[in-house]
Amino acid sequence: MKDYRELAGSFGGVAAEYDRARPSYPDELFDELERLAGRTLKGARVLDVGAGTGIATRLLAARGADVVAVEPTPGMGAQFLASSPGLPLVRGTGDELPFHDRSADFVTYAQAFHWTRPERSVPEAMRVLRPGGALATWWNVKDSSVGWVRAMGERLAAALADGCHGYGAVNEITGHLAPYDLRTGTAVLRWERRVTVDHVITDLTSRSYFAALTPEERAPLLAVEREALLAEFPDGWVIEPYVLDLTVAITPGGAA
User: On the chain, which terminus has fewer CB atoms closer than 10 Å, C or N?
Assistant: First the structure.
């Protein structure tokens, strides 16, 4: 099994593919985030941790947030700066946030909390959040109740058993919040996007478990997935269903 830090570091080599092919997020996500947090993103100080190439950061900024991206990987950071002109970027991790105590209204993890050590990242979030501030984590995962998605997952799990770093139970974060006096809420959203088979393959290449492979190791696996997708979608267009799982935890001191 590859070390998770090695897998996390592999993103730098596929940052352009990541930015081009990874799914975005529907507006409803941010509506739910504001509802659960009990406050608007507009004007709020947001630390978007594990920001990657800025997919979520740009959307948070579009909602009016005063957002700072936090990203440890140089390659991803370089792509962030190219794709997100004018937005600030800080080198760092959730396990050691380079910010003052009580300096943020939100700490967000879009598709990224599983790369942290919760015994460190949760206390760090609590430290930098202001009273009534919100720690928000979300994961955008293909809906495995759909047959072709489930079949793809099973093939990849079998082929990459020694190197796959998955999301696990995405809401397991709630167990790490138990020691704190937090008001916690969750939401699950379902949405879909229409993309080409080539787009889906590019998305796969941006996954850590593919990025950590050599080109010779990747090629046959991607060929199998391309063939399976074309058999399912002969016109070359794929409807990708997603389940978006959101958890928001409010620190003491905010509005009830």
Answer: C
- Cα 73 to Cα 62: distance, rounded to the nearest angstrom: 24
The average confidence (pLDDT) of the chain is 89
Burial class (CB in 10 A: 0-12, 13-18, 19+), 3: exposed
More confident residue, 134 or 217: 134
The per-residue pLDDT for 157 is: 86
In this prediction, residue 180 carries a pLDDT of 84
Burial string for 33-71 (b: 16+ CB within 10 Å, else e) reads: bbebbebebeebbbbbbbbbbbbbbbbbbebebbbbbbb
Q: What 3-state class would DSSP assign to 53?
A: coil
**175 by DSSP, 3-state: which?**
helix
The residue among 140, 145, 97 whose CA lies nearest residue 117 is 97
Which strands, in side-by-side order, build the sheet including 129-142?
Answer: 89-90, 66-70, 45-49, 104-110, 129-142, 237-250, 183-196
- Tell me the Ramachandran region of residue 61: left when phi exceeds 0, alpha when psi lies from -120 to 50, beta otherwise: alpha
- What are 110's strand-pairing partners? 138
In angstroms, how far is the first alpha carbon of the chain from the final one? 45
